[in-house]
């Protein structure tokens, strides 16, 4: 079963606007610690390549935004302004078994929509299996005109595992499964769900959206969702790692902190974030090439709380 990045909780908050008005009362109640249970499964620790399958048409600038994000995950603090993407990713080291070092791997461009413009999970897995590599996470990124089963209705991205081909999976000492993930560009389909806070939400307070840090609402939304599924992949790759709730719809490292980007966040408000003086764009992390990103809160297993960079 794949682990799904659900926005249902986020939307439920919006459906009941009174939740936002009661936040001051909530401050008077001692907040219970958030605990993701470890189910004793294997985590993805060590060196892993992130292979990208670009499905549909992406511009070179769109590809560079997402590539730079991946290359920022394990960058040296000396090369990056703080707060940084790598500082955010280092929280995954606090989960059992040490460091998950992700580096950019192969890239496959499928601009001809080889499987059509409407995909289901088996087709996503088929696309993800094209790289045929061990010690990798294969990520399918779908363009804005590609429909994916469940997209917008219950998920903005997903991750899971599938059986390897015999030429890869049957080598001595290797796993018979590979980890995969999918994230779609929601700009034409559901930006109010999958690109918030850079687009007004479908439900709840209709406050003005934030300006996206790279000038592309759809792709900056993809960064948020890609961060979510990558963190879920390394901490719960085979559905027996860290999560809360049922295994069929788990709350994971980031999805347990949905809607939080900075301190003081509450339903409908992402929290206090940084603002670029020249562009007015909102962000909370720097990448290696000088790009700015908005990253969601991630659960810290040492503090039992959602961690934000700002």
Automatic annotation (TrEMBL):
Principal location listed in the UniProt entry:
secreted
Query: Keyword annotations for this protein?
Result: Apoplast, Secreted, Signal
Q: Can the keyword Secreted be found in this entry's annotation?
A: yes
Keyword set includes Cytoplasm: no
One protein family per Pfam: Phi_1
Q: How is this protein annotated for GO cellular component? A: apoplast
Q: Tell me the leader sequence span.
A: 1-20
Extract the coiled-coil ranges from the record.
none
Which family is it part of?
Belongs to the EXORDIUM family.
Q: Which InterPro entries match?
A: EXORDIUM-like
What is the name of this protein?
Uncharacterized protein
The protein's location, in the record's own words, is: Secreted, Extracellular space, Apoplast
PANTHER family recorded: PROTEIN EXORDIUM-LIKE 2, PROTEIN EXORDIUM-LIKE 5
């Amino acid at each position: 079963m794949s682990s799904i990045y659900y926005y249902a909780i986020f939307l439920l908050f919006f459906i009941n606007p009174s939740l936002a008005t009661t936040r001051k009362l909530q401050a008077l109640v001692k907040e219970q610690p958030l605990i993701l249970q470890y189910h004793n499964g294997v985590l993805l620790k060590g060196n892993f390549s992130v292979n990208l399958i670009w499905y549909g048409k992406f511009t070179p600038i769109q590809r560079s935004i997402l590539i730079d994000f991946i290359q920022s995950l394990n960058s040296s603090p000396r090369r990056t302004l703080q707060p940084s993407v790598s500082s955010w990713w280092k929280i995954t080291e606090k989960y059992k078994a040490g460091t998950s070092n992700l580096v950019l791997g192969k890239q496959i461009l499928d601009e001809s929509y080889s499987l059509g413009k409407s995909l289901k999970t088996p087709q996503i897995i088929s696309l993800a299996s094209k790289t045929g590599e061990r010690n990798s996470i294969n990520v399918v990124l779908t363009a804005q005109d590609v429909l994916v089963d469940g997209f917008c209705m219950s998920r903005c991205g997903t991750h899971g595992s599938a059986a390897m081909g015999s030429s890869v999976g049957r080598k001595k000492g290797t796993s018979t499964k590979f980890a995969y993930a999918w994230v779609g560009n929601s700009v034409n389909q559901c930006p109010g769900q999958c690109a918030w806070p850079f687009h007004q939400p479908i439900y709840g307070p209709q406050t003005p959206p934030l300006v996206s840090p790279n000038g592309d609402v759809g792709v900056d939304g993809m960064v948020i969702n890609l961060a979510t599924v990558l963190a879920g992949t390394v901490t719960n790759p085979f559905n027996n790692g860290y999560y809360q709730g049922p295994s069929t719809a788990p709350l994971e490292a980031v999805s347990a902190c949905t809607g939080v980007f900075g301190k003081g966040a509450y339903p409908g408000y992402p929290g206090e974030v940084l603002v670029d003086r020249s562009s007015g764009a909102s962000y909370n992390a720097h990448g290696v090439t000088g790009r700015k990103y908005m990253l969601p809160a991630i659960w810290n297993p040492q503090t039992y709380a959602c961690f934000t960079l700002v």
